[in-house]
Amino acid sequence: xxxxxxxxxxxxxxxxxxxxxxxxxxxxxxxxxxxxxxxxxxxxxxxxxxxxxxxxxxxxxxxxxxxxxxxxxxxxxxxxxxxxxxxxxxxxxxxxxxxxxxxxxxxxxxxxxxxxxxxxxxxxxxxxxxxxxxxxxxxxxxxxxxxxxxxxxxxxxxxxxxxxxxxxxxxxxxxxxxxxxxxxxxxxxxxxx
Length: 193
Hints:
alpha+beta, TATA-Binding Protein, 2 domains, 11-stranded antiparallel beta sheet, elongated, disordered C terminus
């Protein structure tokens, strides 16, 4: 797992690519390491997961590919190109080089202290502990969604680059600090003079 981005750890990258040609999924099903089942989405997708892949690739008849489960842009590129190479070797498509287009990075950030979620006063936040144990907070810059748990664990999603992830870590750390400071200020106000 990739770490070091301000203490965050990338746990999943979703990337896409386009083969610019159609793929016959019934033929894909004959390739080793593929899953093609008419019961899964009515047979409209196939999956490829070879032993040398980091994640899994979804193959659509239109030639669109989605890579999930990788932890870096390089791993996503590797998996998508390996899918292309596998389909090419099976004579199902013409040779092509693809480039991974990162659509979403999901990262985990663990802060050292619990976060008092009841004290969150962010404009774009929802916290309903009866429904879900985390506060859901959205930011516009960077465009990201945060699931903030009381334990100090935070899931960051919606960013597309490592730079955006760095900015998201700063934003959510500031959000957590405001909640902690609000709790401290409120408890000091309750202490009699």
